[in-house]
Write a structure and sequence with these properties.
It is a single chain. The protein has 376 residues and is of the alpha+beta class. The protein is built from 12 helices and 17 strands. Strands 12, 13, 14, 15, 16 and 17 form a 6-stranded antiparallel beta sheet that branches. The chain has a 4-stranded mixed beta sheet with strand order 3-2-1-7. β1, α1 and β2 form a beta-alpha-beta unit. The two termini are 33 Å apart.
Length: 376
């Protein structure tokens, strides 16, 4: 089976994607899948990468994909082309499924998923609607709220609020009055804590809002919680859940815990500081709490109609013990030492088998969609 593996992307998480995809390339079951590497440059153009580059990454555990931008290898997409949808120089690549190991805006926010759907290609991960919803932190929280799931109190600032100085001042004042300090500030549609900050006073709040608005037109402001950070992996298809196939059943795995050495788990702690956080799998929580986390993770996943995979992030208030849903990531970090695959492995699902499971689920979901009527 020809499996296109996509990496890079026009997002702030371009480099993170290269690391994740390199790990997938080394651990995919090569007896089942023939990889076709496609790199997405920072300008958004897709380029077919050489087999030599693929072999370089697969043979070296420390190697990371580098994207060669060869105009002769530019990839085009034919809507409705199905297996022949991805082409180079007018010649179809004959792709059976796509594993887009990409993160952030233009990648996991429904944009790329819509392209695959239009092309008629099976792809790993959530569909268009759930990808778009989960990328937007405000919309995610609204749906969880409506589903009766616990979220941290929040407000959403929009660029329109900045453009109306009176409205902006009133919103800042009322937010401080309602939540007090400290506050967390983050772009609604960015991942990996890009543009996120913590404010302990009005001056820092103003600066954090300014930084966050550099990355998005909507900014989420949350009441800070003195929290432990717990994560839980989930796989399956919320809409189908075919009991005959393990890969489509919604399943949660062993929860893990992040203990950051920074003030909070920011971009530096995640990617630049090797001692930025201690990762504990399993999380240091009792069985009752672990069971509650797993159940809530599955409920959160189903509420958003997710499929394929997601990592659901939680806060446990150190003062009250209350559990809050924080965020959901539909294409989480995917290196062999990332939290998502490590939590799956702790529950007995090995990394290579996890990759195969996700591809099987993608194929089943695509086959299910093809059976639906599109006209009378």
């Amino acid at each position: 089976m020809n499996l296109a593996i996509l990496f890079g992307g026009k997002s702030s998480e371009h480099e993170v994607s290269l690391v994740s995809a390199s790990s997938v390339a080394r651990n995919v079951d090569q007896s089942k899948f023939t990889l076709v590497p496609i790199g997405i440059a920072k300008n958004g153009k897709w380029y077919l990468q050489s087999q030599e580059e693929l072999e370089r990454v697969q043979k070296n555990a420390d190697a990371t994909f580098k994207i060669a931008e060869d105009p002769a290898k530019l990839v085009s997409v034919i809507p409705g082309g199905e297996r022949g949808a991805l082409c180079v120089g007018g010649k179809a690549l004959e792709i059976d499924a796509v594993f887009a190991v990409v993160h952030g805006t233009f990648c996991e926010d429904g944009v790329m998923q819509g392209l695959f759907a239009s092309a008629g290609l099976p792809y790993v991960g959530c569909g268009v609607m759930s990808s778009a919803l989960t990328m937007d932190k405000e919309m995610t929280k609204k749906i969880w709220n409506d589903s009766g799931l616990p979220v941290v109190p929040y407000r959403c600032f929009r660029r329109a609020d900045i453009n109306d100085s009176k409205r902006y001042d009133e919103l800042v004042e009322s937010t401080i009055k309602e939540f007090g300090f400290p506050l967390f500030v983050k772009p609604c549609n960015a991942g990996s804590s890009v543009g996120a900050g913590k404010a302990n006073n009005a001056r820092e709040f103003s600066m954090a809002l300014g930084e966050a608005f550099m990355w998005d037109n909507k900014v989420l402001v949350e009441k800070a919680v003195n929290a432990r950070e717990i994560e839980c992996s989930v796989t399956g298809n919320a809409a189908i859940q075919n009991s005959e196939h393990d890969y489509s059943a919604v399943r949660s795995y062993t929860p893990g815990e992040i203990a950051p050495t920074h003030e909070f788990y920011d971009y530096d702690a995640k990617y630049n500081d090797p001692d930025g956080a201690a990762l504990k799998i399993p999380a240091d929580i009792d069985q009752t709490t672990a069971a509650k986390i797993k159940a809530l993770a599955e409920q959160a996943y189903k509420a958003l109609d997710c499929s394929g995979l997601s990592r659901v992030d939680f806060f446990i208030d150190k003062d009250t013990g209350k559990i809050y849903l924080n965020e959901i990531n539909t294409i989480p970090g995917f290196t062999s030492i990332s939290m998502f695959p490590k939590m799956c492995e702790a529950a007995g699902l090995k990394y290579t088998d996890l990759i195969s499971l996700l591809i099987d689920e993608a194929l089943e979901r695509h086959a299910s969609y093809k059976q639906l009527l599109t006209s009378r």
